[in-house]
C-alpha cells in the first residue's frame, strides 16, 4: 500500500503522523511510505531520518495526498486540505467530527473512508489511541493552568502549590477519566488542593483509594460544582462521551461565581467543550477572558510538546496502521470489531451514530461486505 504522511498545517501543530521508526516498520511490511518535506521537523525528526528508514520525501502536501492510498495524520484535515482528500482514500487520524459540521460535510462529500483514532476501542472497551494524548493533555492542562494563574499572564497571581504558611491553590477537575486522573495527579504532585468530580461512584472510589491524600473526590452535580467554584483557582474540564459532543458542565452564569483571575482549562474543546463559554483557541493565542476569568481552550494541547507526543502517539497507532495497510481497511475491521468502531465516514455515509445524531444526519450502519 502507498502510505502518505503529510505535514500538519493546523496552527502550531508540530506533531507528525509517524516517527522514522514507525516508517521503518511500515516499509519492512512491504509498503511504500511518502513523507512531506519537513513533516517531522517540528517533532525533532529530520527528512534524512525518514529517508534512512526507507521513506520517499515529497516536496508538497498535494504530492503526498495525490500518491497515497492511505493518509496517516495527527489532526483532522482543515479547510485547505478538504479538496485534497479523494474518493476511496483512507484517512487515519483524530477527527472529532461531532464538534465540526464543516469537516463532517467535507469528508462526506470527499467519498473517503475516515477512521478516527478517538473512537477505536480495544478488547477491554477502552480507547487505546486516545489514551496517550489524553495522558499528555491531562498533565499539560495543569502546566498551562499554573502558567496562566501567574499575574503577568492575566491570572490571580497564585502559586499552585503555595508555600509554608500560605495555602495552595484549589484545583477542581471535572471528569475522572484518563485526562482527569492525569490532571489530578499532576496538580497533586505540585502540592495543590485538588477535588476530582465524576458521576461514576466506582470511579470515585478507585480515585479515593489510589490518588494522593491531597486529592478529594466529589460526586458531579450542578449543585456541587456551583458550591466549589467561588473559591476554586483552576478548573479543568475533561469530560468525554466517545465520539459525541461534550456536555456543558459549567454554564455561562456559573462562570460569574468564580473570582477574577481564576483560570478555566477546557481539555474537551475538540469535542465541543464542557464549558458553555468555551470556543477553540490556538497555542499562539491560547486564552481570552469571560467576566474576568481566564479561559484556555486550545484544541491540540499535546502539540506544544510534539517530541513526547509523537513518540507516544506512534507507539499506539502503529499496530493499527500496519493492520490497515497489510489487510486493507475492510478486512482489518472484519478481524477487529474495535477498529471497526473507528470508522466514522465511508463513501459519503456517516457510519458512527453519535456523529449523525450531533448534526441530524442520516446514519448508515457500517457494511464490511
Describe this structure in words.
The strands form 2 sheets. An 8-stranded mixed beta sheet has the order 3-2-1-4-5-6-14-15, with helices on both faces. Strands 9-8-7-10-11-13-12 form a 7-stranded mixed beta sheet, with helices on both faces. Helix content is 34%, strand content 17%. It has helices at residues 20-28, 47-52, 61-67, 79-82, 101-110, 131-148, 178-189, 201-210, 222-228, 252-255, 306-327, 329-335, 337-340, 353-359, and strands at 2-5, 32-36, 56-58, 70-72, 90-93, 113-116, 170-174, 193-198, 215-219, 234-237, 263-266, 287-290, 293-296, 343-346, 349-350. The longest helix is centred in the C-terminal third of the chain and has 22 residues, at 306-327. The radius of gyration is 21 Å and the shape is globular. The chain is α/β, with parallel strands linked by helices. The chain folds into 2 domains: 2-120 and 306-359, NAD(P)-binding Rossmann-like Domain (Rossmann fold), CATH 3.40.50; 134-304, 3-Layer(aba) Sandwich (Rossmann fold). The mean pLDDT is 96. It contains 14 helices and 15 strands.
CATH superfamily of the largest domain: NAD(P)-binding Rossmann-like Domain
Assign the CATH architecture of the largest domain: 3-Layer(aba) Sandwich
Radius of gyration, whole Å:
21 Å
User: Looking across the biggest beta sheet, what order are the strands in?
Assistant: 3-2-1-4-5-6-14-15
Helical content stands at 25-40%
- Main sheet overview: 8 strands, mixed
Structural class, judged by helices and strands? alpha/beta
- Calculate the mean pLDDT score and round it: 96
What is the CATH level 1 assignment of the largest domain?
Alpha Beta
Termini Cα gap: 21 Å
Poorly predicted runs of 5 or more residues: none
The number of domains is 2
Count of alpha/pi helices:
14
Give the total of beta strands: 15
CATH topology of the largest domain: Rossmann fold
Amino acid at each position: 500500500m502507498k502510505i502518505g504522511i503529510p505535514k500538519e498545517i493546523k496552527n502550531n501543530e508540530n506533531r507528525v503522523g509517524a516517527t522514522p521508526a514507525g516508517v521503518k516498520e511500515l516499509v519492512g511490511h512491504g509498503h511504500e511510505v511518502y513523507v512531506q518535506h519537513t513533516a517531522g521537523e517540528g517533532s525533532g525528526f529530520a527528512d534524512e531520518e525518514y529517508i534512512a528508514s526507507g521513506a520517499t520525501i515529497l516536496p508538497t502536501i498535494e504530492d503526498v495526498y495525490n500518491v497515497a492510498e492511505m493518509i496517516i495524520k495527527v489532526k483532522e484535515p482543515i479547510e485547505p486540505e478538504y479538496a485534497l482528500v479523494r474518493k476511496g482514500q483512507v484517512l487515519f487520524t483524530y477527527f472529532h467530527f461531532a464538534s465540526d459540521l464543516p469537516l463532517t460535510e467535507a469528508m462526506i462529500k470527499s467519498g473517503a473512508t475516515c477512521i478516527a483514532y478517538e473512537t477505536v476501542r480495544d478488547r477491554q472497551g477502552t480507547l487505546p489511541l486516545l489514551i496517550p494524548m489524553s495522558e499528555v493533555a491531562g498533565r499539560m492542562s495543569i502546566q498551562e493552568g499554573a502558567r496562566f494563574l501567574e499575574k503577568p499572564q492575566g491570572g490571580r497571581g497564585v502559586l499552585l502549590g503555595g508555600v509554608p504558611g500560605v495555602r495552595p491553590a484549589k484545583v477542581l477537575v471535572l471528569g475522572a477519566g484518563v485526562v482527569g486522573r492525569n490532571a489530578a495527579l499532576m496538580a497533586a504532585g505540585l502540592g495543590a488542593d485538588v477535588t476530582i468530580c465524576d458521576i461514576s461512584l466506582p470511579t470515585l472510589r478507585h480515585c479515593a483509594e489510589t490518588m494522593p491524600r491531597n486529592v478529594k473526590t466529589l460526586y458531579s452535580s450542578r449543585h456541587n460544582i456551583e458550591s466549589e467554584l467561588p473559591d476554586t483557582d483552576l478548573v479543568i474540564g475533561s469530560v468525554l462521551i466517545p465520539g459525541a459532543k461534550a456536555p456543558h458542565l459549567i454554564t455561562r452564569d456559573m462562570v460569574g461565581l468564580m473570582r477574577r483571575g481564576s483560570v478555566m482549562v477546557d481539555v474537551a474543546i475538540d469535542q465541543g467543550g464542557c464549558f458553555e463559554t468555551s470556543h477553540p483557541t490556538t497555542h499562539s493565542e491560547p486564552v481570552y477572558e469571560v467576566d474576568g476569568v481566564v479561559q484556555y481552550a486550545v484544541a491540540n494541547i499535546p502539540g506544544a510538546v510534539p517530541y513526547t507526543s509523537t513518540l507516544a502517539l506512534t507507539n499506539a497507532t502503529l499496530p493499527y496502521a500496519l493492520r490497515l495497510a497489510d489487510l486493507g481497511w475492510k478486512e482489518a475491521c472484519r478481524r477487529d470489531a474495535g477498529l471497526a468502531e473507528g470508522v466514522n465516514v465511508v463513501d459519503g455515509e456517516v457510519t458512527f451514530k453519535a456523529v449523525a445524531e450531533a448534526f441530524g444526519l442520516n446514519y448508515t450502519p457500517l457494511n464490511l461486505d
